[in-house]
Amino acid sequence: MSSEICGGSGAIGLPIAFGALRLVANQMYGVSPNDPKYSVAAAVVLLVCTALAGLLPALRASRLDPLTALKYE
Q1: Letter string b/e over residues 35-71, b meaning 16 or more CB atoms within 10 A of that residue's CB
Q2: Which of 23, 25, 37, 51 has its Cα between 20 and 30 A from that of 67?
Q3: pLDDT tens for residues 2-43?
Q4: What is the pLDDT of residue 4?
Q5: In 1-73, which ranges are continuous DSSP H helix?
Q6: What is the pTM of this model?
Q7: Is the Cα dihedral 18, 41, 52, 5 positive or negative?
Q8: Which three-class secondary structure state does DSSP give residue 31?
Q9: Residue 21 and residue 34: Cα distance in Å, rounded?
């Protein structure tokens, strides 16, 4: 189920992102809106931020004893 959601959101998000890129193209001096280097750099930055945001709660949850966590539920 999650792969369908991810694929659907990517199919919706990518055209929106490229449309938004066209809107702000006049504000980016010296950068072509079609330059893949900047698109990949932005994707990497978002991926790293997302990974860090998920890593901290996952580390905290992995330190808990599962039986103790279930007892409080």
Answers
A1: eeeeeeeeeeeeeeeeeeeeeeeeeeeeeeeeeeeee
A2: 51
A3: 555 566 676 787 788 777 777 777 777 777 767 778 778 878
A4: 54
A5: 2-23, 36-62, 66-71
A6: 0.52
A7: positive
A8: coil
A9: 9
The per-residue pLDDT for range 42-65, each reduced to its tens digit, is 788 888 998 888 888 888 888 888
Residue indicated by tokens 């959601």: 5
Say if residues 31 and 38 touch (Cβ distance below 8 Å). Answer: yes
Question: Six-digit token pair at 23?
Answer: 């809107």
Q: Which amino acid is at 64?
A: L
DSSP 34: T
Which amino acid, 48?
V
